[in-house]
Amino acid sequence: xxxxxxxxxxxxxxxxxxxxxxxxxxxxxxxxxxxxxxxxxxxxxxxxxxxxxxxxxxxxxxxxxxxxxxxxxxxxxxxxxxxxxxxxxxxxxxxxxxxxxxxxxxxxxxxxxxxxxxxxxxxxxxxxxxxxxxxxxxxxxxxxxxxxxxxxxxxxxxxxxxxxxxxxxxxxxxxxxxxxxxxxxxxxxxxxxxxxxxxxxxxxxxxxxxxxxxxxxxxxxxxxxxxxxxxxxxxxxxxxxxxxxxxxxxxxxxxxxxxxxxxxxxxxxxxxxxxxxxxxxxxxxxxxxxxxxxxxxxxxxxxxxxxxxxxxxxxxxxxxxxxxxxxxxxxxxxxxxxxxxxxxxxxxxxxxxxxxxxxxxxxxxxxxxxxxxxxxxxxxxxxxxxxxxxxxxxxxxxxxxxxxxxxxxxxxxxxxxxxxxxxxxxxxxxxxxxxxxxxxxxxxxxxxxxxxxxxxxxxxxxxx
Length: 464
Ligand code: TRP
Description:
There is one protein chain. By secondary structure, the chain is mainly α. The chain has one domain (6-463): Amino acid/polyamine transporter I, CATH 1.20.1740. Helix content is 76%, strand content 1%. The longest helix is centred in the C-terminal third of the chain and has 35 residues, at 323-357. The structure holds tryptophan. Tryptophan (TRP) binds next to α1, α2, α11 and α15.
């Protein structure tokens, strides 16, 4: 994936370059498409009431997510270093404070925290691949599938084992440096996942409840359109939508910045970002369109939470011809999608430890991996032994979620876009974005005013 051209160019990154624009798009899409689209988006949309939340989420993706992603890529490419070092170098170049590097540090910790629970859910997915293969879901009723889910998550030994397995796979490949395999995996996985999702969508359309699902996802109460106080959408839901936009696009933690460091100079940042945003949002919407009709067809509750996907899709597969096969493949593919995201999630921390503490890649991966694995047990136990231990936002899992989605990602995203919009000179950003035309001015308007004010406004309203 990376051609080693380091040293040949003035600003070449230590680690080489992406071989092509398509490779870069694939790698970023591989990090963006994951549990966030298929597992998280439907359950968070369901918990926050559907339509109005989805609308706010889409606005956040376009108005805030897209310019933040462009900013991350341009900072990464200009810095040609890991996020912490890139922020430090650029702030020096632009004559600003070196404290900007703390943005990179927040990103490192956000990655560690996100992966701690991400791996747990990815572990469930692995477990569900095995369950599917065993045929337990064939012809199962909604009650049986829900009971199966409850039994599964309440056994911490099994879910702990799955989490351990997933982390081990992640650490192993990160330690070895994964570039080559990753590109192949993404090239195959995203299209395959898409095909299976489309097949499931076909099933959903025939469920008789498609219209109801559609209306849950897209109809916005009139009071919200009129911004009237009767609108059921709370500020906390608006913040959840903003957090989900950051989470699903993998932005606000320097990951995309780290990838940007390998992007060749001539590649258009605007067109690559658009491609990624469209693919990622499309897959999330597809997942919602598949899942909500099934929720209503089976009398389930859309606000049920993290188990939503694990209770709806097996039901659909269970009634399909060839269900065992497709269901197994689906959960394997989803684990794959999670795995390509996991590798990206751990990368900033590993790169940082390698460069900052002069460890080898293997040592750094093992060290960080074990830390994440350990923290992850907090989330494993949040669904069983510690389910009743609630504080602040709820269980340990809820708190890690809250801290990352609703505080760390928006905060780091805000700082990143302020840096690109205000600290970096017009010359530097125009140089990276390759234009001074109308499109550039639009980005700059979003980056300097609209996105930061939007983020601050949502944070301020939600937290007070
Ligand atoms: N976007 C990923 C998903 O939707 C999750 C994620 C959040 C992520 N931040 C990231 C992945 C950073 C890689 C890097 O599943």
